[in-house]
């Protein structure tokens, strides 16, 4: 399958939030305080279409097939901007869902942080997640970051193996929204 990876556009919102939700369903359900996929997609769609937040189209790359169908996405950003990018989400979950949750920081900064990577069910098992991660690594290097990082769920050993194959090193264990994760990273020379 030949795919092109490009920056997301606002009109990719028709499909990207549903793909993104696969990568962070439990977390989004905690934000909206219910296990409702339609509501979770609406929540992510609103944020994806806006600017200046963690889940914005401006922080997302998409993989598109020759017909223009989005088959996967990767959302990442400058970790130094995490607190500012998280604030609109905290305000939205408080205003819309009366949720005062303030999750632990996912990144301590000083890195390009990969927030989520997800592949549509139609494209799974074809190496698309790997290609999106390689794209993010190249992007981080080209932007002058000294490090790229992400969190991996302790209960997801297959993802951990994938990240290790790509050169990520296992870092500290850390809690996040009720789960336990490892911070994994690649330092650039």
TrEMBL record:
One Gene Ontology MF term: acyltransferase activity, transferring groups other than amino-acyl groups
Domain N-acetyltransferase: 3-187
Keywords, comma-separated and alphabetical: Acyltransferase, Transferase
PROSITE patterns in UniProt: GNAT
InterPro entries recorded: Acyl_CoA_acyltransferase, GNAT_dom, YpeA/RimI_acetyltransf
Listed name of the protein: Acetyltransferase (GNAT) family protein
Organism annotation: Sphingobacterium detergens
Phylogenetic classification of the source organism: Bacteria, Pseudomonadati, Bacteroidota, Sphingobacteriia, Sphingobacteriales
